[in-house]
């Protein structure tokens, strides 16, 4: 019986697969960016860069009207949460858990959090990218929804949304004037949800 020559493994084949997984970290609401910054500083100081991957604060861009002008701002779509890619071990767990403005991990046992799937992370990343490509309006209106006019000649009138035009940032609202329903076109900034 002759022995078959064995292929020599390439460096890629012998490199261990990444053991980093994604974990959800709970932070004080409004402090997500500070937590991201604090984590990065602590990782660098501790020399643990090889045990951590990416750190994400899930945000999207939204368009809002400020003083009659469209302004693009950032909105967190999971307020109070930061995604951290890391190797879970006692030292990394302690580093994250004892970072300023972090209240703990989400999911799993108290001292052994459960990771989230790569598919869930990709869904969040895609949602973030969609927000950059096509910012959404800060407030979304639906036809039939009741609103109150907060400025202009119809101030304090309530009405139902008949049409929504996101391109022009306008809504058509049906208000009752002297017992008759009248359609009035208003800027997003002139109405609020009831």
Automatic annotation (TrEMBL):
NusG-like N-terminal domain ranges (all copies): 19-128
InterPro entries attached to this UniProt entry: KOW (IPR005824), NGN (IPR047050), NGN-like_dom (IPR006645), NGN_dom_sf (IPR036735), NusG-like (IPR043425), Rib_uL2_dom2 (IPR014722), Transcrpt_antiterm_NusG (IPR001062), Translation_prot_SH3-like_sf (IPR008991)
Keyword Ribosomal protein on entry: no
Residue ranges crossing the lipid bilayer per the database entry: none
SMART domains linked: NGN
Keywords: Transcription, Transcription antitermination, Transcription regulation, Transcription termination
Domain of life from the UniProt record: Bacteria
Family: Belongs to the NusG family.
Role description: Participates in transcription elongation, termination and antitermination.
HAMAP family in alphabetical order: NusG
Protein name: Transcription termination/antitermination protein NusG
Organism of provenance: Rubrivivax gelatinosus
Lineage, highest ranks first: Bacteria, Pseudomonadati, Pseudomonadota, Betaproteobacteria, Burkholderiales
């Amino acid at each position: 019986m002759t022995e078959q020559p064995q292929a020599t493994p390439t460096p890629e084949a012998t490199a261990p697969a990444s053991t980093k997984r994604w974990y959800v970290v709970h932070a004080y609401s409004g402090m997500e960016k500070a937590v991201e910054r604090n984590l990065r500083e602590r990782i660098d100081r501790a020399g643990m860069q090889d045990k951590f991957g990416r750190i994400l604060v899930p945000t999207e861009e939204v368009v809002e009207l400020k003083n009659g002008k469209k302004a693009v701002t950032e909105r967190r779509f999971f307020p109070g949460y930061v995604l951290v890619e890391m190797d879970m071990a006692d030292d990394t767990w302690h580093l994250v858990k004892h970072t300023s403005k972090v209240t703990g991990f989400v999911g799993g046992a108290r001292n052994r959090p459960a990771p989230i799937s790569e598919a869930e992370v990709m869904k969040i990343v895609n949602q973030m990218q969609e927000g950059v490509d096509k910012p959404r309006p800060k407030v979304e209106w639906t036809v039939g929804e009741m609103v109150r006019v907060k400025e202009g000649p119809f101030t304090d009138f309530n009405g139902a949304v008949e049409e929504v035009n996101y391109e022009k940032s306008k809504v058509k609202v049906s208000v009752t004037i002297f017992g008759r329903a009248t359609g009035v076109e208003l800027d997003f900034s002139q109405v609020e949800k009831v």
